[in-house]
Design goal:
Aspartate Aminotransferase, domain 1, seven-stranded mixed β-sheet
Length: about 375
């Protein structure tokens, strides 16, 4: 079945007898038992809810996994898989990493006795794996510098040391299963901030973990049920609704992003454009080898801080706001927003400075987005 069809019909299980085309919102915290020792399959919504189950089955089909678990946010999902690890365990993570993930690792996980090394490429990942390493966690493309790691090559590294049970966890938020399916490339767990492209409308928070092996999924579901960060029925419904148009939205995001990226390259005040769909991107070949598309995320550096601030304060159609992946184009200042908690030295080393902006290209017409950027850049005095 084509992936665009899976988006719409990913879960064929029926939960009521009305013939409803859309899965109902089961706004019930608890479910009655038919008898002593009997269950309908649903007991308490923290454990499972029909609307949430429908979403989980759909994402499992999209990613090609054994099981998916839905959470209240992407950070809740990360927090749950971090409970797989114990004091003394070591994790190798992407050097360029979403600031919220770095904050969790550095302020929560390290406090709990887990250590981290950060790697920018395949060779560094290999060099930083130790006898204590239990997982490799990568974003690809990375946030916000749009670096790409070869998932299959990283998986080979973890499989060569399978006796040490090294898990490969991939954040697939930027490309979604429409363009990239990490489990087929050797990953063990795929992470999504469902708030972003899966939901797609800037109106719901969600996180999802799709797992390759059933045994590992059962461990994660036990942790999820115990810690309680489950996704609500209503938000599950919103993410289901968003996924129905995911395939067509991702194609439009990509088409428009490529047009915007090419236009940015022509502007004197734009010094560098980071978009993995540009053929001069250093990871373009790797992207083409493991993904069928390039997504809608662009980062770019401008000539000075004044220009960056002026763009942020003068865009009209584009909104100066955090998050990404929605119908509306959003522009972000990583220095003060997504990566504000990184120490200055760490930010500067990653290229996250006062001249860097990140653009989530929405579904508006490409010419309208370009005209808005043009007038904002032209407002610089």
């Amino acid at each position: 079945m084509d992936i665009s069809t899976i988006c719409i019909h990913g879960c064929e299980k029926k939960y009521d007898a009305t013939g409803a085309v859309s899965v109902p919102i089961f706004a019930s915290s608890t479910f009655a038992h038919p008898g002593v020792g009997q269950s309908t399959g649903f007991d308490y919504s923290r454990s499972q809810n029909p609307t949430k189950e429908h979403l989980e089955h759909t994402v499992t089909a999209l990613e090609g996994g054994a099981e998916t678990i839905a959470f209240s946010t992407g950070m809740a999902a990360i927090s749950v898989f971090m409970e797989l690890f114990s004091p003394g365990d070591h994790i190798v993570a992407s050097y360029d990493l979403y600031g919220g993930t770095f904050r969790l690792f550095s302020h929560i996980s390290e406090k709990n006795g887990i250590t981290f090394s950060y790697a920018a490429n395949l060779q560094e990942i290999s060099e930083k794996i130790t006898s204590a390493t239990k997982a490799v966690f990568i974003e690809t493309p990375t946030n916000p510098m749009m670096n790409v790691l070869d998932i299959a090559a990283v998986a080979q590294l973890t499989q060569l040391t399978q006796s040490k049970k090294i898990l490969l966890i991939v954040d697939n938020t930027f490309l979604t299963p429409i363009f990239q399916r990490p489990l087929s490339l050797g990953a063990d767990i795929v992470l999504h901030s469902g708030t972003k492209y899966l939901g797609g409308h800037n109106d719901a928070l969600a996180g999802l973990l799709t797992v390759k092996e059933k045994d590992l999924a059962e461990r994660l579901r036990f942790i999820s049920n115990t810690t309680g960060g489950c996704l609500s029925p209503f938000d599950s419904f919103l993410i289901i609704r968003g996924i129905k148009t995911l395939a067509v939205r991702m194609e439009r995001h990509q088409e428009t992003a490529l047009a915007v990226a090419r236009w940015l390259l022509t502007q004197n005040k734009i010094k560098k454009v980071y978009y993995i769909g540009l053929q001069d991107h250093p990871d373009y070949a790797v992207s083409c080898s493991q993904a069928s598309g390039f997504g809608g995320m662009i980062s770019f550096t401008v000539n000075d801080e004044l220009t960056a601030v002026s763009i942020l304060e003068n865009v009209k159609l584009i909104k100066y706001a955090e998050s990404l992946g929605g119908t509306e184009s959003l522009i972000t200042y990583p220095l003060l927003q997504t990566h504000a908690d990184l120490p200055q030295e760490e930010r500067e080393a990653r290229g996250i400075n006062a001249c860097l902006l990140r653009l989530s290209v929405g579904l508006e017409a490409a010419d309208d987005i370009i005209q808005d950027l043009k007038q904002a850049i032209g407002s610089v005095k």
